[in-house]
Write a structure and sequence with these properties.
By secondary structure, the protein is an alpha/beta fold. The chain has a single domain, classed as Zn peptidases (Aminopeptidase, 3-Layer(aba) Sandwich). Helices cover about 30% and strands about 15% of the residues. The chain is built from 10 helices and 14 strands. Helix 2 packs parallel to helix 3, helix 3 packs across helix 10 and helix 8 crosses helix 10. The relative contact order is 0.20. It comes from Edaphobacillus lindanitolerans. One of its GO terms (molecular function) is zinc ion binding. Keywords: Carboxypeptidase, Hydrolase, Metalloprotease, Protease, Signal, Zinc.
């Protein structure tokens, strides 16, 4: 089994941190007013240019593919590198105002596609598939939701004529600068279903946050199609990582602000009474592996000292969110990890942005190295339970 001497070095030095958006009512946060401009972040045109440059200069190592289109017709890309039988799928910007994940992906992509012995060894063990900026309409609008109307959904799925719009659709009200009456849309990260072949049925609407989604948005359909294709090719997607942002939270029992929250818990275990409704997925679901992956990320972040990436926590546990990509893909056998960095993209200036991108990269590096050399399977999944919890309010 190979050991990665360069481990926490090569990838971690890239730059970037991410803010994940998680499942649940508490996760259903909306866009905030921008204190700082987003000009320091990579926009859709810049990302496309960078991806093409990386692919064209890689001498065939990097495959850039258009795998779908957003509601407004923007191309959605995957970037693939490596030939190993362990598949790591990493997705960012399912919420368009959570941009640090895309920065982290671009930096890590440069490293794993490089010519160093470290990068070559990684590619022998792992097939990396990146989906940066998978909700480009929302990214360009700098908002959480996509740009699809319910009328467009009914046009795509006539059987839904007369059904109530899904609960994750917003078409009224003004929040900050966002007039949803004029610019309605869906929270795409509530549009997933553990049944990857599900076809929308009117009786399943409007649903709720604890129910599966419907694959009615083109962005969720694209992610699902990529996942299914990789599963058919490799047997399963070993690891799925979703990069998000969160609000301002605290280490439980303290007034210390959280930098980054992790999680591998999105649905109750199918073997428990609470998870009995997922019994058909019991043979695939591997919660211990998800916990090991999270421990790998946590250990990598802690290895540089709390003064650098201070206050790494577990996101809310005990969730039941099958409508998220993380919940659906976990039930289909993938080890899953949520990254939730503090604040929304525009809450901090460039210095804080750089620290957060680096934190995301550091955590991803820990996972990548541990999966590549197999050491992830030696980690104690119970160590996951020792990671400090996130609190929504500071201690008195």
């Amino acid at each position: 089994m190979k050991k990665w001497a360069g481990r926490v070095g090569a990838l971690a030095l890239c730059a970037g941190l991410l803010v994940p958006a998680v499942p649940g009512e508490a996760l259903a946060k909306e866009e905030s007013h921008h204190e700082f401009p987003i000009s320091g972040f990579t926009d859709y045109a810049e990302m496309t240019k960078k991806l093409r440059q990386i692919a064209s200069s890689s001498k065939g190592l990097v495959a850039l593919d258009v795998v779908g289109q957003s509601n407004k017709g923007r191309d959605i890309y995957t970037v693939r590198v490596g030939s190993g039988d362990k598949v790591i799928l990493i997705q960012s910007e399912i919420h368009g105002n959570e941009k640090t994940g895309t920065e982290a992906i671009l930096n890590i992509l440069k490293t794993v596609s490089g010519n160093s012995p470290y990068a070559r060894a990684l590619r022998e063990e792992v097939t990396f598939v990146f989906m940066p900026m998978m909700n480009p309409d929302a990214s360009e609008g700098d908002k959480r939701r996509n740009t699809m109307t319910w009328a467009e959904v009914v046009e795509d799925f006539p059987q839904l004529s007369g059904a109530r719009p899904s609960w994750n659709y917003m078409d009224r009200g003004i929040q900050q600068q966002y007039d949803y009456g004029k610019n309605p849309g869906f929270d795409v990260n509530r549009d997933f279903n553990p049944d990857l072949n599900y076809v929308p049925r009117p009786q399943d609407f409007p649903g709720n946050s604890a129910s599966p989604g419907w694959f009615i948005t083109p962005e969720a359909q694209t992610s699902r199609d990529v996942y299914k294709s990789l599963t058919e090719e490799f047997g399963k997607v070993e690891v799925f990582i979703d990069l998000h942002h969160q609000g301002l939270y605290y280490v439980e029992g303290t007034s210390d602000q959280v930098t980054l929250s992790l999680s591998g818990n999105f649905v109750p275990h199918p073997s428990t009474p609470e998870g009995a409704k997922y019994a058909q997925y019991a043979d695939k679901y591997n919660y211990d592996f998800s916990r090991q992956l999270n421990v790998a990320a946590y250990d990598a972040l802690q290895s540089v000292g709390n003064s650098v990436f201070n206050n790494i926590t577990l996101y809310s546990q005990g969730l039941d969110l099958p409508g998220t990509a993380l919940g659906s893909y976990a039930l289909n056998g993938s080890g899953t990890v949520l990254f939730e960095v503090t604040g929304q993209t525009q809450s901090f200036g460039q210095k804080k942005k750089g620290q957060l991108v680096k934190a995301v990269e550091r955590g991803l590096t820990g996972i990548i190295d541990a999966v590549a050399d197999g050491s992830v399977h030696q980690l104690d999944p119970e160590a996951y339970e020792d990671i400090p919890l996130t609190a929504y309010q500071p201690a008195d």
